[in-house]
């Protein structure tokens, strides 16, 4: 075929794609109406993390062309997000302000049609979802370089919310300025304390003269250098692409993180409990008696039942001095027979066991 024929072929395919997307939107609206009609005046759940994870995995599994399977899945993620918004726009609380990596994680998981609701603290994210002002929340839980976000773990202890999903984000830090600058003239670097730690070696080697100042978030650092920088000072911020775009900043240096594989895991929190998908995780909190062999007894059932534990963290308990609770992630869903048996084993030896949720493993 010549060029004109190829272009006509693309136009024909585009028309088919558009008509099919419109048909999908019609069906999504019908699903919303059926859910409302069958609700018996109970709250209607429009977004189902387990259902969406299964759809996206099927998209990846059936990919056959030259496009990478996960890239196709991201396109479907946006189509699904737009269709879901026709049923009911999903309000998502996240650790703000706008332009943070947490907002980027929320958009990756829910698509761009979700309604973002930035919050000042992680506790505020929990409160917003608990009060019903947001359908879901997104909070950071661990970084591959700096470790666990302890405040997120602590918030689960007294919260009724469940983990509904997870998001894994590669974290690339950039040095950003409000305009063209001389690196040697930089006086202060602003960023979240974890980002400063993740870029320590680069900062030591390239701008050792600059004072490092920790602020509440990378997005707040970007806002400060865009709006608050006094005359005579040369301020820069560390942050991601979303923060740079939000505050119209220029990149001084790209990807300055010390570890090239730096990534952060985020949790999606809500009031629903997703069903099993065949590729799930379960998270729990347990408290143990302070006696020899207690931790060994906690770990032994995982080995006996051949269940893979993916994380174990300890946090100070608030009921007694030098007492601790343990946070565990492991593969499987609480409705899986082996996992259900494991949980029964753990209940027999734990003072308390709280299931934080069983949820689909990150797809994208």
From TrEMBL:
| Record key words, sorted | Amino-acid biosynthesis, Aromatic amino acid biosynthesis, Coiled coil, Cytoplasm, Isomerase, Lyase, Multifunctional enzyme, Phenylalanine biosynthesis
Query: Can you give the residue ranges of the ACT domain?
Result: 283-360
Keyword Membrane in record: no
A GO cellular component annotation here is:
cytoplasm
**Domain Prephenate dehydratase, chain residue ranges per copy:** 91-271
Record localization:
Cytoplasm
Q: Which residues form the Chorismate mutase domain?
A: 1-91
Q: Which domain of life is it from?
A: Bacteria
UniProt catalytic activity: chorismate = prephenate; prephenate + H(+) = 3-phenylpyruvate + CO2 + H2O
Listed pathway(s): Amino-acid biosynthesis; L-phenylalanine biosynthesis; phenylpyruvate from prephenate: step 1/1; Metabolic intermediate biosynthesis; prephenate biosynthesis; prephenate from chorismate: step 1/1
Q: Does the keyword ATP-binding apply?
A: no
Signal peptide feature range: none
- Primary role: Catalyzes the Claisen rearrangement of chorismate to prephenate and the decarboxylation/dehydration of prephenate to phenylpyruvate.
Provide the protein name. Answer: Bifunctional chorismate mutase/prephenate dehydratase
């Amino acid at each position: 075929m010549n060029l004109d024929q190829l272009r006509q072929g693309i136009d024909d395919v585009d028309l088919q794609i558009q008509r099919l997307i419109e048909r999908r939107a019609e069906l999504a609206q019908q699903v919303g109406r059926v859910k409302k009609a069958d609700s018996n005046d109970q709250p209607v759940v429009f977004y189902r993390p387990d259902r969406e994870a299964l759809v996206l995995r099927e998209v990846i599994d059936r990919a056959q062309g030259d496009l990478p399977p996960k890239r196709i899945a991201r396109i479907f993620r946006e189509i699904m997000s737009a269709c879901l918004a026709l049923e009911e726009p999903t309000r998502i609380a996240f650790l703000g302000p706008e332009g943070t990596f947490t907002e980027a994680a929320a958009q990756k998981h829910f698509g761009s049609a979700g309604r973002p609701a930035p919050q000042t603290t992680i506790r505020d994210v929990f409160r917003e979802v608990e009060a019903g002002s947001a359908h879901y929340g997104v909070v950071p839980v661990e970084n591959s370089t700096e470790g666990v976000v302890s405040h997120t773990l602590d918030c689960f202890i007294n919260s009724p919310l469940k983990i509904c999903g997870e998001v894994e984000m590669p974290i690339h830090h950039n040095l950003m300025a409000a305009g063209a600058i001389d690196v040697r003239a930089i006086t202060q670097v602003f960023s979240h304390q974890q980002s400063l730690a993740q870029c320590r070696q680069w900062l030591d080697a390239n701008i050792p003269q600059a004072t490092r100042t920790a602020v509440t978030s990378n997005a707040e650092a970007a806002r400060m250098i865009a709006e608050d920088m006094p005359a005579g000072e040369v301020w820069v911020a560390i942050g991601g692409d979303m923060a740079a775009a939000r505050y119209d900043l220029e990149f001084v240096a790209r990807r300055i993180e010390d570890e090239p594989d730096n990534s952060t895991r985020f949790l999606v929190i809500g009031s629903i409990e997703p069903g099993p998908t065949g590729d799930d995780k379960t998270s729990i909190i347990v408290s143990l008696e302070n006696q020899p062999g207690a931790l060994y007894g906690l770990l032994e059932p995982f080995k006996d039942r051949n269940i893979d534990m993916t994380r174990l963290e300890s946090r100070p308990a608030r009921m007694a001095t030098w007492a601790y609770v343990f946070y565990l992630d492991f593969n499987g869903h609480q409705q899986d027979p082996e996992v259900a048996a494991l949980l029964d084993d753990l209940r027999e030896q734990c003072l308390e066991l709280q299931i934080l949720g069983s949820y689909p493993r990150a797809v994208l």
